[in-house]
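mind reviewing both lines:
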Amino acid sequence: MRARYPALHWQILIGLAVGAAAGLLANAWCPAQPDGTPHAGLTWCVDNLAKPVGQIFLRLIFMVVLPLVFSALVLGVAGLGDVRRLGRVGLRTLVFTLILSACSVGIGVTLANVVRPGSHLSAARRAALRERYASQAAEQVAQARLAKPLRETLLDIIPKNPFQEMVGALDGSSPGGGMLAVMFFALLFGIALTLAPPERTQPLIRVLEGVYDTVMVIVGLAMRLAPLGVAALVFSLAAVLGSEILKTLGWYVLTVFGGLLLHFFGVYSLVVGLFARLNPLRFFGRISEAILTAFATSSSNATLPTSLRVTEQNLGVRREIASFVLTVGSTANQNGTALYEGVTVLFLAQVFGIDLTLTQQITVALLAILAGVGTAGVPGGSLPLLVMVLQTVGIPAEGIGIILGVDRLLDMCRTTLNVTGDIAIAACVDRTERR
């Protein structure tokens, strides 16, 4: 008989626990010097053993970021090819999606700035982190001094050479808007696909679908290494920071939960009441089956059949509208993911003592909104795009190990928000179309 292994999310949690426990023990056995300098032997172990293992996992994710971003965004927008056929339905779906995504990111960024979950580390621990990543910090200071005015920053979103932007998007060497410019090109490319003759563009769409499916297979293979990678990354951080990192992680989880609950019961209730003319409590009650399915599966795609059924049968949304809005929304409307990524980026910036300027926070918000469009509707699908956003604003990607252990629980909650948002948009579009 084949041995049965725990599900991947349990393996990641085990990896987190083992890495954290080993790191805390190592921190206790090899305490820092009185001046806060880490133990020399422990530093060698982290730099030469644990960190390279974690880097293997990270590099596998880095490797697929660009093809995933491009193919996912192009296909997400190309899915709106029905805009000409459904007319106003497609436009209203897009408007509601952007509004809800902007609200979710706004809530997340605001809470992260108010609560500041990553600032609960002591000055000594933060100084140790700052010293470990001093070279990256120096590069960011130098880049900040060469910062472009807002006018040029906005113009750089439109790339002169998208391929040149792709080459330098992850290491900061792109001449223009970097990843934001790549996303703009992908969005415009997808719009153009919807306007071109379908018989000419269908082969290209099939190629991009093949690229997307292949990239997701690579992500799946990389995620198999996640338990070991998480253990190594968390060991590296816990060995240096000790128990303080666990307390800081608790503040992060509470901040994400607070943002998701505020968006779920606040924004969705307001939107459903105003535009769908539904009692919010009745709305949530009628779609409870889809909510529970989303929470259990952590997958918008896996929840799609249930969402379609409850939206048509329990809310009375017309089948053609429900099919269009929910199918596109399973990829293009990821409110919870956008909120989560906004909080996570600011949290890790605070952990590493990196002060993001207003322009950088606006960039984070825009990238989080666009990343929500390009996120795969499967468990862990936001990870590559989260790494991309971290890289864009100069936050060490190694910090992702801090949050991976609790990502499964947060994934369940944000997927619930994503699916509920899809159904809310379908109800709103259907109601406005009946006027």
